[in-house]
Design a protein that fits this description.
The chain is an alpha/beta fold and about 250 residues long. The protein has one domain: Aldolase class I (TIM Barrel). The protein is about 35% helix and about 30% strand. The chain has 11 helices and 12 strands. The protein has an 8-stranded parallel β-barrel, surrounded by 5 helices. Strand 8 and strand 9 form a beta hairpin. Helix 1 runs parallel beside helix 3.
Protein backbone atom coordinates (compact mmCIF):
# COMPACT_ATOMS: atom_id res chain seq x y z
CA UNK A 1 0.00 0.00 0.00
CA UNK A 2 1.32 3.42 -0.93
CA UNK A 3 1.97 5.90 1.86
CA UNK A 4 -0.99 8.12 2.64
CA UNK A 5 -0.71 11.91 2.62
CA UNK A 6 -1.93 14.49 5.12
CA UNK A 7 -2.82 17.79 3.42
CA UNK A 8 -3.85 20.97 5.22
CA UNK A 9 -6.07 23.13 3.05
CA UNK A 10 -5.95 26.90 3.21
CA UNK A 11 -8.95 28.66 1.70
CA UNK A 12 -7.96 32.18 0.67
CA UNK A 13 -10.15 35.28 0.53
CA UNK A 14 -8.70 38.76 0.09
CA UNK A 15 -5.22 37.47 0.89
CA UNK A 16 -6.17 35.83 4.20
CA UNK A 17 -6.85 32.24 5.19
CA UNK A 18 -10.52 31.70 6.03
CA UNK A 19 -12.76 28.83 7.13
CA UNK A 20 -16.49 28.21 6.94
CA UNK A 21 -19.12 25.54 7.52
CA UNK A 22 -20.94 23.96 4.58
CA UNK A 23 -19.25 26.62 2.40
CA UNK A 24 -20.88 29.42 4.47
CA UNK A 25 -20.29 31.38 7.71
CA UNK A 26 -16.75 32.25 6.68
CA UNK A 27 -14.25 33.83 9.10
CA UNK A 28 -10.55 34.74 8.89
CA UNK A 29 -8.00 32.51 10.61
CA UNK A 30 -4.53 33.75 9.61
CA UNK A 31 -1.80 34.60 7.11
CA UNK A 32 -1.54 31.92 4.40
CA UNK A 33 2.25 32.14 4.01
CA UNK A 34 2.99 31.93 7.73
CA UNK A 35 0.49 29.13 8.20
CA UNK A 36 1.91 27.17 5.27
CA UNK A 37 5.45 27.43 6.65
CA UNK A 38 4.24 26.28 10.05
CA UNK A 39 2.47 23.27 8.54
CA UNK A 40 5.61 22.33 6.64
CA UNK A 41 7.61 22.37 9.88
CA UNK A 42 4.90 20.31 11.60
CA UNK A 43 5.21 17.48 9.07
CA UNK A 44 2.43 18.07 6.55
CA UNK A 45 3.04 16.21 3.30
CA UNK A 46 1.52 18.78 0.97
CA UNK A 47 -0.61 21.92 1.06
CA UNK A 48 -3.57 23.12 -0.97
CA UNK A 49 -4.33 26.81 -1.41
CA UNK A 50 -7.75 27.68 -2.82
CA UNK A 51 -8.92 31.19 -3.63
CA UNK A 52 -12.54 30.51 -2.75
CA UNK A 53 -14.00 33.67 -4.28
CA UNK A 54 -11.89 33.94 -7.43
CA UNK A 55 -14.34 32.17 -9.72
CA UNK A 56 -17.38 33.87 -8.22
CA UNK A 57 -15.87 37.32 -8.48
CA UNK A 58 -14.21 36.73 -11.85
CA UNK A 59 -10.62 37.12 -10.58
CA UNK A 60 -7.46 35.12 -11.11
CA UNK A 61 -5.36 33.77 -8.30
CA UNK A 62 -2.53 36.25 -7.94
CA UNK A 63 0.90 34.86 -8.76
CA UNK A 64 2.64 37.10 -6.21
CA UNK A 65 1.02 35.18 -3.35
CA UNK A 66 2.26 31.94 -4.91
CA UNK A 67 5.78 33.36 -5.10
CA UNK A 68 5.71 34.25 -1.42
CA UNK A 69 4.45 30.78 -0.55
CA UNK A 70 7.17 29.13 -2.65
CA UNK A 71 9.84 31.25 -0.96
CA UNK A 72 8.72 30.21 2.51
CA UNK A 73 7.30 26.70 2.17
CA UNK A 74 9.50 23.67 1.44
CA UNK A 75 6.83 21.05 0.71
CA UNK A 76 4.74 20.60 -2.45
CA UNK A 77 1.68 22.80 -2.76
CA UNK A 78 -1.27 23.01 -5.10
CA UNK A 79 -3.07 26.22 -5.98
CA UNK A 80 -6.48 26.88 -7.48
CA UNK A 81 -9.23 29.40 -7.88
CA UNK A 82 -10.08 31.44 -10.94
CA UNK A 83 -8.23 29.21 -13.41
CA UNK A 84 -10.42 29.53 -16.49
CA UNK A 85 -7.98 28.97 -19.32
CA UNK A 86 -4.61 27.35 -19.94
CA UNK A 87 -3.02 30.80 -19.99
CA UNK A 88 -3.86 31.10 -16.28
CA UNK A 89 -1.73 28.05 -15.46
CA UNK A 90 1.78 29.07 -16.51
CA UNK A 91 2.06 32.11 -14.18
CA UNK A 92 1.19 29.90 -11.20
CA UNK A 93 3.58 27.07 -12.04
CA UNK A 94 6.30 29.57 -12.96
CA UNK A 95 5.77 31.29 -9.61
CA UNK A 96 6.51 28.03 -7.79
CA UNK A 97 3.29 26.04 -7.48
CA UNK A 98 3.75 22.29 -7.87
CA UNK A 99 0.24 21.60 -9.16
CA UNK A 100 -2.89 23.48 -10.10
CA UNK A 101 -6.45 22.52 -9.35
CA UNK A 102 -9.38 23.29 -11.60
CA UNK A 103 -13.03 23.05 -10.70
CA UNK A 104 -15.77 25.27 -12.10
CA UNK A 105 -14.06 26.04 -15.39
CA UNK A 106 -13.42 22.35 -16.05
CA UNK A 107 -17.08 21.50 -15.49
CA UNK A 108 -18.09 24.19 -17.98
CA UNK A 109 -15.31 23.30 -20.44
CA UNK A 110 -14.06 19.74 -19.80
CA UNK A 111 -11.52 20.08 -22.61
CA UNK A 112 -9.60 22.45 -20.30
CA UNK A 113 -8.35 19.37 -18.40
CA UNK A 114 -7.02 17.88 -21.63
CA UNK A 115 -5.34 21.12 -22.66
CA UNK A 116 -3.54 21.54 -19.34
CA UNK A 117 -2.52 17.88 -19.15
CA UNK A 118 -1.37 17.96 -22.76
CA UNK A 119 0.79 21.03 -22.20
CA UNK A 120 2.18 20.35 -18.73
CA UNK A 121 1.48 16.70 -17.93
CA UNK A 122 -1.23 14.98 -15.89
CA UNK A 123 0.91 15.17 -12.75
CA UNK A 124 0.28 18.92 -12.66
CA UNK A 125 -3.53 18.68 -12.88
CA UNK A 126 -5.80 18.15 -9.89
CA UNK A 127 -9.51 18.23 -10.65
CA UNK A 128 -11.49 19.41 -7.63
CA UNK A 129 -15.07 18.23 -7.38
CA UNK A 130 -17.53 19.83 -4.97
CA UNK A 131 -20.60 17.61 -4.67
CA UNK A 132 -23.71 17.52 -2.54
CA UNK A 133 -25.86 14.47 -1.82
CA UNK A 134 -29.48 15.37 -2.45
CA UNK A 135 -32.50 13.72 -4.02
CA UNK A 136 -30.76 10.36 -3.82
CA UNK A 137 -27.61 11.25 -5.77
CA UNK A 138 -24.38 13.24 -5.67
CA UNK A 139 -24.69 16.42 -7.74
CA UNK A 140 -21.67 18.50 -8.73
CA UNK A 141 -21.66 22.18 -7.78
CA UNK A 142 -19.60 25.05 -9.21
CA UNK A 143 -18.74 28.65 -8.29
CA UNK A 144 -17.69 27.85 -4.74
CA UNK A 145 -20.71 25.67 -4.08
CA UNK A 146 -23.20 28.26 -5.23
CA UNK A 147 -24.53 26.69 -8.43
CA UNK A 148 -25.79 23.14 -8.87
CA UNK A 149 -25.13 21.46 -12.20
CA UNK A 150 -26.60 18.41 -13.90
CA UNK A 151 -23.30 16.61 -13.50
CA UNK A 152 -23.11 13.59 -11.20
CA UNK A 153 -20.07 12.91 -9.03
CA UNK A 154 -19.00 9.51 -10.27
CA UNK A 155 -19.46 10.07 -13.99
CA UNK A 156 -17.68 13.42 -13.81
CA UNK A 157 -14.76 11.92 -11.86
CA UNK A 158 -14.37 9.21 -14.51
CA UNK A 159 -14.48 11.76 -17.32
CA UNK A 160 -11.92 13.95 -15.57
CA UNK A 161 -9.54 10.99 -15.36
CA UNK A 162 -10.14 10.12 -19.00
CA UNK A 163 -9.33 13.70 -19.99
CA UNK A 164 -5.98 13.64 -18.21
CA UNK A 165 -6.48 14.56 -14.55
CA UNK A 166 -3.64 13.33 -12.36
CA UNK A 167 -5.67 13.45 -9.14
CA UNK A 168 -9.23 14.01 -7.98
CA UNK A 169 -9.99 16.11 -4.92
CA UNK A 170 -13.52 15.28 -3.80
CA UNK A 171 -15.19 17.58 -1.28
CA UNK A 172 -18.52 16.56 0.20
CA UNK A 173 -20.49 19.77 0.72
CA UNK A 174 -22.73 17.88 3.17
CA UNK A 175 -19.74 17.13 5.39
CA UNK A 176 -17.64 20.27 4.92
CA UNK A 177 -16.84 21.93 8.25
CA UNK A 178 -19.16 19.68 10.25
CA UNK A 179 -16.36 17.61 11.88
CA UNK A 180 -18.57 14.52 11.72
CA UNK A 181 -16.29 12.51 9.46
CA UNK A 182 -15.65 12.21 5.74
CA UNK A 183 -18.08 10.92 3.11
CA UNK A 184 -16.42 7.52 3.23
CA UNK A 185 -18.90 5.56 1.14
CA UNK A 186 -18.81 8.03 -1.75
CA UNK A 187 -15.06 8.50 -1.46
CA UNK A 188 -14.56 4.76 -1.49
CA UNK A 189 -16.63 4.39 -4.64
CA UNK A 190 -14.68 7.14 -6.40
CA UNK A 191 -11.41 5.52 -5.33
CA UNK A 192 -12.51 2.09 -6.55
CA UNK A 193 -13.65 3.35 -9.94
CA UNK A 194 -10.56 5.42 -10.74
CA UNK A 195 -6.94 4.57 -11.38
CA UNK A 196 -5.60 7.91 -10.14
CA UNK A 197 -5.18 9.14 -6.55
CA UNK A 198 -8.21 10.51 -4.71
CA UNK A 199 -7.93 13.24 -2.09
CA UNK A 200 -10.80 13.20 0.42
CA UNK A 201 -12.06 16.52 1.71
CA UNK A 202 -14.80 17.69 4.06
CA UNK A 203 -15.70 16.50 7.55
CA UNK A 204 -12.51 15.83 9.53
CA UNK A 205 -13.07 16.30 13.26
CA UNK A 206 -11.25 13.46 15.03
CA UNK A 207 -8.14 11.39 14.37
CA UNK A 208 -10.27 8.31 13.77
CA UNK A 209 -11.97 10.12 10.89
CA UNK A 210 -8.63 9.99 9.09
CA UNK A 211 -8.30 6.28 9.88
CA UNK A 212 -11.77 5.70 8.47
CA UNK A 213 -11.21 7.63 5.25
CA UNK A 214 -7.96 5.76 4.57
CA UNK A 215 -9.57 2.38 5.22
CA UNK A 216 -13.26 2.32 4.32
CA UNK A 217 -12.90 5.45 2.20
CA UNK A 218 -9.85 4.07 0.36
CA UNK A 219 -8.51 7.61 -0.07
CA UNK A 220 -4.91 8.24 -1.07
CA UNK A 221 -4.77 11.53 0.83
CA UNK A 222 -6.88 13.32 3.40
CA UNK A 223 -7.37 17.06 3.31
CA UNK A 224 -8.54 19.08 6.30
CA UNK A 225 -8.65 22.67 7.41
CA UNK A 226 -10.23 23.76 10.70
CA UNK A 227 -8.91 20.89 12.85
CA UNK A 228 -5.40 21.94 11.83
CA UNK A 229 -6.00 25.70 11.76
CA UNK A 230 -7.38 25.75 15.30
CA UNK A 231 -4.87 23.18 16.59
CA UNK A 232 -7.51 20.64 17.48
CA UNK A 233 -5.36 17.94 15.90
CA UNK A 234 -1.58 18.09 15.65
CA UNK A 235 -0.11 16.66 12.47
CA UNK A 236 2.65 14.72 14.26
CA UNK A 237 0.10 13.30 16.72
CA UNK A 238 -2.14 12.36 13.82
CA UNK A 239 0.65 10.53 12.04
CA UNK A 240 1.50 8.61 15.22
CA UNK A 241 -2.18 7.65 15.51
CA UNK A 242 -2.26 6.43 11.91
CA UNK A 243 0.88 4.36 12.47
CA UNK A 244 -0.78 2.72 15.46
CA UNK A 245 -3.58 1.67 13.10
CA UNK A 246 -1.07 0.24 10.59
CA UNK A 247 -1.76 2.92 8.02
CA UNK A 248 1.38 3.76 6.04
CA UNK A 249 2.19 7.46 6.13
CA UNK A 250 5.09 9.53 4.87
Amino acid sequence: MLAKRIIPCLDIRDGQTVKGINFLDIREVGDPVEMGAEYARAGADELVYLDITATHEGRNLFADLVRRIAANVNIPFTVGGGIRDIKDVDPLLSAGADKVTVNSAAVKDPELISRIAGSYGSQFVVVAIDACFEQGDWFVYVNGGRIRTRRKLFEWAREAEDRGAGEIMFTSMNHDGTKNGYANQATGKVSEELGIPVIASGGAGKMNHFVDVFTSGKADAALAASVFHFREIGISDLKDHLKEHNIPIR
